[in-house]
Amino acid sequence: MERMLGRSWNDLIGRSIHEVLALPDDQAHSPFHRMLVSHHRESVELERGDHWLSVAIDPIRDEAGVVKGALGIVSDISVHKRLEEELRRRADDLAIADRRKDEFLAMLAHELRNPLAPILNSLEVIRLERNDVHATEEALEIAGRQVKHMSHLLEDLLDVSRFTRGKVQLRKEPLDLVTVARHAVEAARPAIVAGHHELTCLWPDYALWIEGDPTRLGQVVSNLLNNAAKYTEARGKITLKVERVGGEAVILVRDNGIGLSPEMLARVFDLFAQADLSLDRSQGGLGIGLTLVRSLVELHGGNITAYSSGLGRGSDFVVRIPLPAQVLRPVAKAALPPDTAEFRPWRILVVDDSVDAARSLTRVLKLWGHTVSTAFDGPSAIEIAAAEVFDVMILDIGLPGMDGYQVAAQIRTAEGDRHALLVALTGYGQEEDVRRALQAGFDCHLVKPVDLDRLRELLADPEKYRIPRNGRAVANQRAD
Questions:
Q1: Distance of CA 404 to the CA centre of its chain
Q2: What pLDDT does residue 395 have?
Q3: Which helix (H) or strand (E) holds 404?
Q4: Which of these, 396, 428, 459, lies nearest to 154 by C-alpha position?
Q5: Which of 80, 151, 414, 460 has its CA 20 to 30 A from that of 301?
Q6: Closest by CA position to 290, among listed 308, 263, 269
């Protein structure tokens, strides 16, 4: 009792139970009075400092059943109360997570459907205006932009998955952060131009050398600029500033947009968090861009902080990355000899159960000057590969019945001394998928929708990507 009540026993002697437990003494609220009326157990829970107490009042009856007194049992239920509070908190967190999941799925469907409309419209323009070169080129540019937009959305989703599983590795090198930021501005320019925003860039008059991954740091800056463009009203002002402050490289992205409420400021870097998901302010995006930014900055040993004076007052995002102890310079690379190799046409086999995908890729490859055969399932591919000699085979993985891994394994077994370049072209892009592809006999792994420039580069020099069949795969030989 001394421990539970925080008072000495001598201090309790001579006091009534109401005084000891600080119970109400009026008849309406006292458990003792209620017990006398009901003749049954009464109980009450009390919070006393860091402790929760449960007081149970049991009646004491004589032989005739008349209540003559009461037995008060006091129990410390602090642990149970803490568990209840933890369960309640977790239930609230799960409810919030479930709501955000539903919001995210709705936004994902919205974002993936949005590009389909201009793509379909562009195709119709090309069909109807095929003799109008200007209209056709404009339609092709629109369709190309939308396909790249969808690809970026999917890449962001894959990045989130990789971060969640700790699978992201940086390719660090000495780099000039100013140069990286300049390139990132060009990547984000379409969103800035679309919003008719005024962008001000403030650079130092010196190179700011750090150790980092140029691709990932460019992603940090472009994501911040895209976020500023998305949440700033048309014709807004956006500032990008890169500078050295003490021992840190600092990147500031400032806008005069819709700002952040204190509640949103606290969770702006949370996964799937968006400032406003209402239909009239659906600016696009999946609520994962800032999550990726924070993860990438932390992988570089830095931190990011968001500031806002409130709704309608704009936002600041400040990235701080520690500078190396000594000044870095990139290692000079030997000048490459000029490319004097002439174009070489290849015999190529394209295998995909999607007839549209197979035929469209076949047509592209033929327009590039290659000789192409097409198959739409695994057995047909194996049959064609056995009857003809191919330099390159591009196989889909998700084939019905016999998947691409099995097809590749059988082709490798049957080809003998021949060694075609096997390219996995698939929608499965996780590291495990790449590993399985190499084990099955593929030389390289490309993700749909294929980057045609990368595919053209691969076909320009297949030997660069061919893996010797000695059971070992060299990572930097893969086209992915």
A1: 28
A2: 93
A3: helix 404-414
A4: 428
A5: 151
A6: 269
Radius of gyration of the chain (CA): 34
Closest CA to 448 of 460, 433, 467, 463: 433
CB atoms within 10 A of CB 339: 8
Q: How far apart are CA 473 and CA 438, in angstroms?
A: 7
With the C-alpha atoms ordered 467, 470, 471, 475, is the resulting torsion angle positive or negative? Answer: negative
* Pairwise CA distance, residues 385 & 410, whole Å: 10
Angle at 462 between CA 458 and CA 468, to 5 degrees: 125
Q: What would the two tokens of residue 120 be?
A: 């379909």
Q: Check if the beta carbon of residue 351 is closer than 8 Å to that of residue 395.
A: yes
Contact present, 202 and 240 (Cβ < 8 Å) = yes
CA 420 to chain CA mean position, Å = 36
Task: Give the Cα separation of 89 and 86 in Å (integer).
Answer: 5
Task: Tell me how far apart the alpha carbons of residues 284 and 110 are, in angstroms, rounded to a whole number.
Answer: 8
Structure tokens belonging to residue 480: 């992915």
Whether omega before 330 lies within 30 degrees of 0, making that bond cis, reads no
Number of other CB atoms surrounding residue 259 within 10 Å: 20
Instruction: List strand residue ranges (DSSP E) for 265-355, in order.
Output: 303-307, 315-322, 347-351
Nearest Cα to 112, choosing from 154, 165, 76, 52? 154
Q: Quote the CA–CA distance of 280 and 224 in Å, as a whole number.
A: 22
Q: Which residues of the chain have pLDDT under 70?
A: 27-28, 103-111, 114, 160-167, 271-287, 327-342, 416-418, 468-480
**SS3 category, 342:** coil
Which two structure tokens, joined as six digits, stand for 410? 């059988």
